[in-house]
């Protein structure tokens, strides 16, 4: 299942409106087929894996990160039926599909056909791997990542606004990779007026993956931008990267819309500079504790990246 989850990442940010799913077919201890959701959502991961396996799929075990779909679509076959028709003997599912068109029906159909089904294997990792789609499917809103690049003392610029460059080349390249993995990117009006940011992807081979640009404003957005009236307004994308100004960052945090935090910290001190955040609506220090969980930490050249996820009870 870990391999299937890793494969699902190849479709991250590309499979909308469908989830980015990974699938592995194993027979006699060997991988006979593998697949992941293709761009724009079709073919599905199971269809790709079955096509790769051919006749070797008969009697095999399929490991799939999301319950095989059970509904017919003009865009492609029903994956539960495809697995049954191929003669797969066992299916291991990480997550039950929250889509009401499937939601347990795929598992039930497989079992009714005599296919052994196990569920819940690697569920947390699979859910994290498809976080944008899962957020849209279960909460009706995009998965929001906030990116902050600061000095050790929490500044994003000098007092005069100078901010290029706080972090080094490797950290900036990683930030561009994150842009390529998101459907939308948000900046505030102050950042737009001061810096006129392009917010594109400047990595060789990924230039076409630039996200759609949103401006957090109650007014009109200039050409090439789409106005986003508030952090809780729906931009119509599954993944949103907030990158552009303390005002926008603070607004999304105050609205409790940030699900993931990318904190890039350079080994420099600025002193009397511009703070990364303004008022985020914190009532007392007790309310600040227990809200964020560290999930990754690494060095990018001389800079440190810490990745946090919002702790939610849902």
From TrEMBL:
Gene Ontology molecular function, alphabetical: 5-amino-6-(5-phosphoribosylamino)uracil reductase activity; diaminohydroxyphosphoribosylaminopyrimidine deaminase activity
Family annotation (Pfam families): dCMP_cyt_deam_1, RibD_C
Pathway: Cofactor biosynthesis; riboflavin biosynthesis; 5-amino-6-(D-ribitylamino)uracil from GTP: step 3/4; Cofactor biosynthesis; riboflavin biosynthesis; 5-amino-6-(D-ribitylamino)uracil from GTP: step 2/4
Enzyme Commission number(s): 1.1.1.193, 3.5.4.26
InterPro entries: CMP_dCMP_dom (IPR002125), Cytidine_deaminase-like (IPR016193), DHFR-like_dom_sf (IPR024072), Eubact_RibD (IPR004794), RibDG_C (IPR002734), Riboflavin_Biosynth_HTPR (IPR050765)
Keyword RNA-binding (UniProt): no
Keyword list, A-Z: Hydrolase, Multifunctional enzyme, NADP, Oxidoreductase, Riboflavin biosynthesis
Domain CMP/dCMP-type deaminase, residue spans: 1-118
Function: Converts 2,5-diamino-6-(ribosylamino)-4(3h)-pyrimidinone 5'-phosphate into 5-amino-6-(ribosylamino)-2,4(1h,3h)-pyrimidinedione 5'-phosphate.
Family: In the N-terminal section; belongs to the cytidine and deoxycytidylate deaminase family.
Protein name as annotated: Riboflavin biosynthesis protein RibD
Gene coding for it: ribD
